[in-house]
Amino acid sequence: MSRPAKALIDLNALRHNVALAKGLSPHSGTMAIVKANAYGHGVVPVARAIEDMVPAFGVACIEEALELREAGITKPICLLEGAFCSDEIVAAAEHDFWLSVVSREQLQVLLAARLNRPVKAWLWVDSGMHRLGIRPEEVVDSYAALSTTGNVADCVVLATHFACADELKNEFTHQQLLRLKTGMAGLPEQPRVSLSLANSAALMAWPECRADWNRPGIMLYGSSPFSVHHPQAEKLLPVMTLTSSVIALREVPVGESVGYAARWHASRPSRIATVAIGYGDGYPVHAPDGTPVLVKGQRCSLVGRVSMDMITVDVTHLSDVAVGDEVVLWGNGLSVNEVATSAGTISYELLARMPRRVPRSYSE
Ligand SMILES: Cc1ncc(COP(=O)(O)O)c(C=O)c1O
Prior knowledge:
8-stranded parallel beta sheet; 6-stranded antiparallel barrel; 18 strands; binds pyridoxal-5'-phosphate
């Protein structure tokens, strides 16, 4: 018998979430964001499962894009951080990768490149996040340079990224939109400039941000980008369910401690289940006592510090727990957001850092 820690990836749920994202903005192109190994879900099986539903994919770097090409994915792939060196521009042109231009420096390198064929370019505007992108007042010149160089194919997409779209009442999203529109004011009216604005949160909650291209990531994997209830988020289905099994059970008398640093002490005679999952499997090391865990479908509390390969769970209130019983750490029946919040992190981190040691199994 192999180690029971596994990530079950529900490809039907993934397709359901992609359909939801598309349905929110039916006249837009949906670029599925699959960077960081498709947020830990396994980029090749994920891309294969949805290639017929989306016109393009988004990744962080050329290595991620090449992995998709080598697996036979033929749709365009956007390099969201652009080229890290000039060789990557040549490779992007060869492999039909869409190249982001995220700074004046990248713009100059692209203009100076010697390419056999032109690339499609996405020009990123820093509308307030102050991470990547040219300044709004640089839009007109930069856009003109990209539109006239022989190194860039047909239309240039103008893109920006929102800092606070997951905060439903935060006006900063509107301010960012305004700054972008101000920067665009001097652009020629014809042909109309293609725009890409929305990540998952903006796509779900800010209809004015839906544009020619949307870029949903986390929602495709069934996790809400919001910390509060949102009707669209209710419709998402979790794609990853992280499971393992009870591998040992013991009775712990009052006053005895459990685990490293003796963090938790039994305040009543307690039944403690040891589960084969730990921070070596991507379970958050900072999860405190009380973090929810499902044992045989019933909510229980993590007790004691998370070890590399094991956690300990209080199952005193369950009558019939046995070694071998199934445990769900997140996914079906227990949202990854709830576990992330309890551990002081975000679902993105828990999903994206899921290590290779945890075998993924894919179900249709
Ligand atoms: C440029 C860009 N667009 C879209 C996304 C997708 O964001 P989300 O996963 O919040 O939908 C990301 C993710 O960080 C991103 O960096």
